[in-house]
Amino acid sequence: MRRRPATRELSVQPLLAAMLAEHRDEIIEVGVDWVREHSDDLRGRRPRSETLALVQREFEVYRALILHGDPAPRAAFIEHVTSLRAAMTFNISTLVRGFLCFRHGVMHVVERHETVTLRQRLELLELLDDAYLETILLMTDVYTDKLKGALRTAQRELLHKEKMAALGGLVAGVAHEINTPVGVAITASSLLADRVDALRAKFDDRSLRRRDMRSFLDDAREASALTAANLRRAGELIASFKKVAVDQSSEERRSFELAAYVREVLTSLGPLYKRTGHQVRFEAPGELRVHTHAGAISQIVTNLVSNALTHAFPEGQVGEIVLRVEQGPDGGARVEARDNGRGISPELQARVFEPFFTTNRGRGGSGLGLHIIHNLVTELLGGEIQLRSRPGEGTTVTVSFPTSAPEGAPA
Ligand SMILES: Nc1ncnc2c1ncn2[C@@H]1O[C@H](COP(=O)(O)OP(=O)(O)OP(=O)(O)O)[C@@H](O)[C@H]1O
Ligand SMILES: [Mg+2]
Questions:
Q1: What is the 8-class DSSP label of residue 404?
Q2: pTM, to two decimals
Q3: Is residue 400 a contact partner of residue 332, using CB atoms and an 8 Å limit?
Q4: Where are the domains of the chain?
Q5: Domain 254-401 class?
Q6: Looking at ligand 1, which residue's alpha carbon is closest to its atom 25?
Q7: What is the rounded CA–CA span in Å between residue 59 and residue 5?
Q8: Is 339 strand, coil or helix?
């Protein structure tokens, strides 16, 4: 009676080793035929010599794995194949087929061996299946990692492109915006220069009369006031442009209690709303510790409150502004500014985040406020911003962001 082997290796490993040594070329040939017949991808359309080379390599890979438990050649092979197709056209089915053709070749040889018992055959199959399963899992992990890497790279590139495009738009917008006040200042100052020349001529030929002098003084006053106002406006635009560009990256993260911080910012804004008659309330159901960019939070709160004060309420109407700090359902932080003012029409809602979009042009609005907030929230805080509004029913802006800000804004 045959003694039952203590371990599987004892009975079937030497048998497999002998078969792989003796029938190497045949197993490879059968594998190549099988794979060419069953592939409609690249491997099937390759010259036979190339497929042969690949299958030979796979033969060694799986021999090392199954007979000697050495996974290194397999890992190197997977790495090799997945790197070859760095363009991500690589299919995991190619690698799967590679293993199957090895298995097919081995079983083809086994079936011809009458000396192989049924039990040995089953054990062989089990051995091959184990290796197959483990290999598939590994391939999937490697492939997923590569896909993730490619996705990350693509995202980074996209973000960079978007940023550059946004910056391009911003620069063009700034140039356009600054052009107007600077143009007016130039016109006014050259007008003044003309008037000075005319005055001087009259003075020189002693024809200067009291009336000329008075009219000159009026014109000169108007021209210089116009010049100063427009240069100031240009200066403000440049200052807000600098804010967009600089503030985002200049500030470090720090740990602080969000509710107390926002309350402080709100208090410091008192002079903006104290005498307006508007009710400004602060709400926070609890404390919330965050590790993020305090300066950005302050900028966001300031802009939101100032927007509500500037845009929400028509002259003479008294309203309510509520600033709320709480933990969102996802565990992140949430800052919300709500007013019960005139609201924003759906058509305008789509545009308020654009740089330089303002309904307050000529009265101090540059249209950069919400654009800056949007950039700060999405790029620096790693969060998102939502605006809900209906004409006549007020506006709510909700800013949600992780309690721990991403390290370093994306380059
Ligand atoms: N709370 C609000 N209620 C009604 N309209 C608003 C509110 N907040 C913003 N808006 C609208 O969105 C536009 C864009 O706002 P944004 O803060 O970007 O620019 P701005 O306030 O006009 O100018 P800036 O903030 O640069 O001084 C505003 O001009 C206004 O029409
Ligand atoms: Mg604003």
A1: B
A2: 0.53
A3: yes
A4: 8-156, 169-250, 254-401
A5: alpha beta
A6: 369
A7: 27
A8: strand
